[in-house]
Write a structure and sequence with these properties.
elongated
Amino acid sequence: MKTKDKIINTSIQLFNQFGTSSISTNHIAKSTGISPGNLYYYFKNKEEIIRAIFEKMICDWDKLWLPPADWKPGLIDFKNIIKQSLHLEWEYRFFQRELITLIKLDEELKNRHQQIQLERMNEQKKLFQLFINEKIIEQPDNIDSLLTTCWIISNYWISFLESRGEVINEKKMEHGIELIMAVIKPYIINN
């Protein structure tokens, strides 16, 4: 693994465990097994590391939300996408947990996040339309409201659990999937 990737992966682990405010670039360098000077060769500061993590998140979500052109979805695919999405939320939980603070402190990150959020909402709408076209889901009266509700559950489910002091496990993740499916259930054809 390249040094830059090691720095990013180590940072994700440290930020998930301790939060971004508790971790300095010196902590990251030490945990990565490099000198602070070597870290600064790749990243000028912690904000650059967080932006690089965000770009890694985007790539991971692209694999999930951008299906192949010839893909024919089924209901099980819908559940799998939700499950994979929640697992990605868990993989980058520090970002979900600290989102508001992170974008308040970094205008560049804020702008990029807002751009990606709009793109993701459009991608989800297109994906949802594939399920409508395949007659798996009915056309809702207000698709934007439905997708926003699903977005909120997906993006804040883990933060909700952590704020209650709950241990995150597979059963809790499955409950998040059930919540999203409960929102979608009235639109599923032959449910």
